[in-house]
């Protein structure tokens, strides 16, 4: 690998404005919202006007549609008003600002990138390509979100990060659709098929939303609803359906401004390590897909993002025996009519799994177990397989003594990925002396590389705190693999 001088550092200026409820920062906290509302209402109008004007002047340039955001937050806490109290525009904005706080999405670290071909290839010189790079941003409380940047590769061994724009934008969220069979598969995997869920599934249409679920519940047999445990079943059904969502960004928002924050209960403590791939269907239509790890503070779960244009994203649950643990990575096309993915269901080995629909994944098959010193603790992948004329190039990571991470590679057969036909006997990339320190020491890690003009480009996280870039000649890399 040849390291470049390009680097991407966390930027504390990349902040979002979020709803802030005093006293509810921690679980089981006691809300102080009503007292804050009362104090805002008691302020003299001249003080309110001066304070509101100062907030608008100080923060409007830091957030898109800031006044509308404050008004929305004021509306959210209006239930704490004992009666409908008329407020001036200034007092309403100050009320919203009193329940708003900035959050630096990269306040702690920036790491674990993946690179895919950008949908916009305009304005480039011959030999250049633009890539979209996903980023794991870590802020206060070790909360992970998903950000983006862009880079231009070529001509020759050149990588250039394009400037990231401000302000950061969180997009507009809405509910996503489910299929009835997907929900059935999730409930079956969780052991929740019973009389009530069976009845609800029979009533739901093939494609449904949360509103359809509520309608199906009104049709459920009252005896089933009265049984012990039915309340917990209803809560779980609603939680599962609500976990699928869609986020859309306006046309005037650049990719580098977009950030996906946790939006579902099972990812309340973060979206981690998105592995993006440009997936091309058999009909030639391409879409972007990414698997990521959802974390709720206690449990982890693999989830799926899909997007046609990197502007509207749909998030959904994955299920099945292979959809466990961290590190699923999707192949960029169907093989023999099926979806394929790398996974690490046992927590320490590289495995393969297949799926009919890309959502429900079957029993995993191990293809690589830890063996060498540099992977003695565990191994996994570093992103989706990359197709070459000699096989599927899979970048791997190994964890060795002192929890030191290194990056390796192996080659899978194009037609039968369960066949490992080549493997490096030494790491491809390991931390240099100046790469040992960071938020998490002794880590080099990537969620996906990109091949352009015969070179493998690898953006990688350093110490879970910043990002570097390296490249290698693909033919040299493949020639170095042992059978």
Mean pLDDT: 95
Give, in spatial order, the strands making up the sheet with the most strands: 8-11-16-15-14-13
Q: What would you report as the Rg, rounded to the nearest angstrom?
A: 24 Å
Which residue ranges are poorly predicted, with pLDDT under 50 across at least 5 consecutive positions?
A: none
Q: How many domains, as an integer?
A: 3
Distance between the termini: 21 Å
Q: What would you say the CATH architecture of the largest domain is?
A: 5 Propeller
- The CATH class of the largest domain is identified as Mainly Beta
CATH topology of the largest domain: Tachylectin-2, Chain A
Percent strand = 25-35%
Give a short account of the largest sheet: 6 strands, antiparallel
CATH-assigned homologous superfamily of the largest domain = Glycosyl hydrolase domain, family 43
Number of DSSP E strands: 30
Helix vs. strand class:
alpha+beta
Helix content: 10-25%
User: Which shape, going by the Cα principal axes?
Assistant: globular
Descriptive account of the structure:
The protein has helices at 33-42, 45-59, 66-76, 89-98, 180-189, 195-203, 210-218, 222-226, 230-242, 474-479; strands at 2-8, 15-19, 100-104, 109-117, 129-139, 143-153, 159-161, 172-175, 178-179, 207-208, 245-248, 259-260, 271-280, 286-295, 300-307, 312-317, 329-330, 339-343, 350-355, 365-368, 378-381, 386-388, 391-400, 404-412, 420-423, 429-430, 444-445, 450-452, 455-462, 466-473. With 483 residues, the protein is α+β, with helices and mostly antiparallel strands. The chain has 3 domains: 2-7 and 105-172 and 244-479, Tachylectin-2, Chain A, CATH 2.115.10.20; 21-98, no CATH class; 177-242, no CATH class. The strands form 7 sheets. A 6-stranded antiparallel beta sheet has the order 8-11-16-15-14-13, with no helix packed on it. Strand 18 (339-343) and strand 19 (350-355) form a beta hairpin. Helix 2 crosses helix 4 and helix 3 (66-76) crosses helix 4 (89-98). The protein starts with a strand and ends with a helix.
